[in-house]
Amino acid sequence: MARVLPTKKIERAGVNEFRALMESAGHIVQEIDGGNDYGEDCYLSFTQKGERTGDIVAVQVKSGTAYRRSVGYGISCRGHVQDWTRSRIPVIGVVYDPDLRKLFWVNLTEFLLQEVEQGRSPKSVPVAETAMLDIDTVEAVVLRIRSFISKNDRVRPIELGILQSVTRKMSRLRNRQFNDMDRTPVGGVPYEMASDSVDFRERHPGFHPALVKWLSVGVIVGLLAMMAPGLFKAVERDGHASWLWSGWAWLVCYYGTLAYLLMVSGKDPQKRRARFLRWGAFSLIWSGWYVGLAHQTSAWSVNPIFEWIFVHQMPVVAKFLLLYLTGFYLRQEIDRRRRLRLAYPEGVPEGG
To answer: Residue 68 in contact with residue 126, Cβ under 8 Å?
Structure first.
């Protein structure tokens, strides 16, 4: 008798779980015959109030523990980068974790387009462990996918409204490729005034990134040093009403928060969260620069409401922010190790 391989059962479990979830939400799943599987397992047609919307995506479903990574999951895109970026319809990826019995998703087309535009050639697409696809998140995921379709769809300008249609038309005109006869030769006209600098950069590829990094660090340290005396004056003048310690304690809190945010943003594996933390640190720097240099140089007058909020409330907000972030990363690491132990009951391999 024919044997049913365990891997086949796991693959079908992922497709069945995905199909059951989407159909329970009212959408239409059309599976692709296994003999015609070239990187997609099914098509997903979206509905709204019981009617088809015309929005459709292709879906690549992966099942099993082989797709786990140290952080989240990963879908290999070897041989599919061109297929998924040139496809007329978006392609999304779904990973089914049989141990957790949960689905996780990623927009393969969106991620690969961003990577290709930046000149990178990815071998796999990361799937965040926070990108769960379940009954609680399915509506938000559908809205996000349909929004991506509408932004990249050139077929239905009438449904988008007049303003969006005109905006999209202007965008296409700006990006239109003109006839080769009307364009300059490949590479364009050389800029001789910058040739020597670019030649040096190409001969020493590691020099420029290091220079930019240390210049950025120098500018930030210079700003922090310049505004320290002014901040001390601001805190000493009107900060004792609610701040029990001296201006030195306030400065320690302020600079410690900045250092923590910059350090954490450099180590956070989630790019969006790291970018958010980095902008939070820069906002604190510019706020301190605005208040500190005003007291030090009298170049401008600080808004009294802004100064009161910054001096009196910054330490309180910083305290809760640091406690929250510390607890958040502890929970994430504990959960990651728990998942690894569940995936590898005989021992987590090195590097896990």
So the answer is: no
Report pLDDT digits (tens) over 249-285.
788 888 888 888 888 888 888 888 888 888 888 888 8
- Residues 183, 187, 191, CA angle at the centre, nearest 5°? 105
Do 26 and 50 meet the contact criterion of CB atoms below 8 Å apart?
Answer: yes
CATH class label, 6-154: alpha beta
Phi, psi of 94 (to 5 degrees): -130, 130
Q: Where in the chain is the domain with CATH 3.40.1350.10?
A: 6-154
CA angle 344/350/352 to nearest 5° reads: 60
Which residues make Cβ contacts (< 8 Å) with residue 28, sequence separation at least 6? Answer: 22, 44, 45, 47, 52
Site of tokens 């509905």: 47
- For 36-50, b/e burial (b = at least 16 CB within 10 A) is eeebbbbebebeeee
Nearest to 93 by CA among 81, 78, 108: 108
Q: How confident is the model over 308-323, as pLDDT tens digits?
A: 888 877 878 888 888 8
Helices marked H in the chain — which ranges? 6-24, 81-86, 108-117, 138-151, 162-174, 195-203, 207-238, 247-267, 271-297, 304-343
